[in-house]
Design goal:
The protein is of the alpha/beta class and 233 residues long. It is built from 9 helices and 9 strands.
Length: 233
Amino acid sequence: MIYFSHRGSNTQRVQNTVDAFALAHKQGARYFELDVHLLKDGNLAVHHDYSLLSTAGIDVPLKELTAKTLHDYPLKNLFTQDTVYVPLLQDILPVITPGLEILNIELKNDNNLYPGLEETVLKAVAAEMLPKVLFSSFDYESLKRLRVLSPTVRMGQLTRTFNVQETLNIGAESVHINHIRFTPKIAQTCHAYGLKVYCYTVNDQELAVRLAQDGCDGIFTDKITAFIHEKPL
């Protein structure tokens, strides 16, 4: 069982920020998950939603912003007195690289909102780091484009409707699914084809134990310290 720090230590710092990932790394995390968007100037921003409404309180789409204008919108910070902003991917990578096992980069590209996102992300990740990067997306077409660009890049299919043939067709190595939809049968099917199955978002230790018993290979969690300092499941 492995544990991905979901958006960094986001119960102690603002999610998907440099501070959140720096704290998670300090706490011992070596598996991470983050979300990327393509900005107007071609930079990659790390943020979950397509808009800043939930994090900065203003409904501005990421696609309309640049690296410079991100600093016009401080994020709501309920944890510290620091002023924090949406970071760029290039700001996060050096923070988590030491000792990194896997970085799961979720491509936020529903309906190809960001043409060229897949190619841009591939170019942004150093060649020596690429073997430790696992790309995922809810948008199946985005994963298909990524596979065309790179026949060897690691991919996981984020899905709400499990279909193992879809996962195999794009050469993914894992299925990422909400723990509510996860079943032992899904795990058995995945394992029969050599696939891993990872569940999100799991913050309860008892739930994690049950998932592991049912065949889950790893979880995404907001509370990384509840798991990485415990005996591995």
